[in-house]
Amino acid sequence: MSYPEAVKFKDHAAGAVLTLAAVCCGGWAVWPHLFPAPQDVQVARHELPSPTPRDVAPEYRHTASVAPLISGRVNVNTASRAQLEALPRIGPALAERLIAGRPYRSLADLDTVKGIGPKLLETLAPLVAF
């Protein structure tokens, strides 16, 4: 190698070393942001709100000779045809459609049954459970 070529090589080598040093120092500066140290788990304890009472199911009158078919809320997923027919505005045909459409999870599911509209849903809301 001649003298001018050696100087060029030396300048390139020095530049490469400086570039490598800058990248390494930059890497050490960025490392904590890329790989943060694990932290202890912190648990916050909050009081849960008290449960809100559901709509109270109506009390049905009964006498010594006639006992009501339902008391409290009727689970539409397990109720018999007679229990469903005891609900207001539910006849035999609608009771059969309710039984055929089981299972139900909410009033919105009942709304899909033919013959049940918004007014009947409003009537049934305090009487049924899921």
Automatic annotation (TrEMBL):
InterPro entries xref list: Endo/Exo/Phosphatase_dom_1 (IPR051675), RuvA_2-like (IPR010994)
Superkingdom, natural source: Bacteria
Transmembrane annotation, as ranges: 12-31
Electron transport as UniProt keyword: no
Pfam family, one: HHH_3
One GO BP: protein secretion by the type II secretion system
UniProt keyword annotations, A-Z: Membrane, Transmembrane, Transmembrane helix
GO CC annotation: type II protein secretion system complex
Record-given protein name: DNA uptake protein
Native species: Deinococcus peraridilitoris (strain DSM 19664 / LMG 22246 / CIP 109416 / KR-200)
Organism classification: Bacteria, Thermotogati, Deinococcota, Deinococci, Deinococcales
